[in-house]
Amino acid sequence: MTPTHGQDWSESVETILMEDNVKAFLLPQTHTIRQAMEQLEKTEEKIVFVVDEESRLVGSLTDGDIRRWILSDGDLKAEVLRICNRSPYVAKEGFAIDQLRTEMLNGNFGCVPVISSSREIIQLVFWKELLQGEVGVKLKRQLNLPVVIMAGGRGTRLAPFTNVLPKPLIPVGDKTIIELIIDQFLPYGLDQFHLSINYKSKILKSFFEELSPAYSVSFLEEREPRGTAGALRALYSPVSENLIVTNCDIVIEADLAELVSFHQDNDYDLTLVASLKDYNIPYGVCELEKGGSLARIKEKPQYSFLINTGMYVVRRDRLNLIPEEMKCDMTDFIEEIKRAGGRIGVFPIGENAWTDTGEWTEYRKALDHLGRLSSRATAE
Length: 380
Known about the structure:
Spore Coat Polysaccharide Biosynthesis Protein SpsA, Chain A, 11 helices, single chain, CBS-domain, alpha/beta
């Protein structure tokens, strides 16, 4: 690319480049995929750039690249060179800003590296900075589907708070848990919410009546508790539309547009969001041969699992598999879909992208993190 006619390069890009943050997006090519996941979780754009020892660009790596690797049962200890994109989109020194703006919009690029003639990354251009102040620019891909929040449980693990308040109204900083959950959906244009309610339902109704939010809230009232999926039966539609379902004690910091696209592109009937979770055994684990003799000892091994977070994308025409007026948990519903020949997808996210507030130990851990989310949402 070449500079726009009459444009001073150094002055014109000063306001759109974030030079101090370049290092946070650079990943040594010798790092593992696990290390890349940890670094990606710290970047809002969900992209890092793999570089050699001279800071020369080798490739780019996104959370989507890692997701595909996990689903193919790839080893997280493998080096990032195994999966990075060796031909990422780049800008060269002296690029024309107008041309870059157009190409970033067309390609939906959140971040583009500026490279020298020797491919050294010298600066990064960020979409949100480049398009700052432009009318009509949306930083999140917009979605149009309802969101169901399963808010009818008793929340016994958070007693004694839940002896007084329903679990969704437990405070975190200046907001309640359910407000923080809803805040994660609003940037995507999602403004139609259904709440399944049972325990202390009048308090929940009164809260939203007093709140008078700009988004729409309707209630799926359960006369008796119907499990983690039973209330969804009321939203059955013969049309193959989708809806998002989430528990009322989790916050997922993932690209919801990517989640919905993943669900639709793979023609899944239900897609569950799964978080990678590591478990470290602080002992030497004995592995035995047949007959009971010792084969080897694995010292303090680490095991990784994909854990169901409690967020799903579901086809509405599959909700007729949920029995009417009967208890049905999400695990039961999933099994019914499989028995009917349906397809279940898994959308992996990093461990730090899932915040669980469902019991006291996790709630205490989440207070600081969710408190920051609350403050950030209030500032915005």
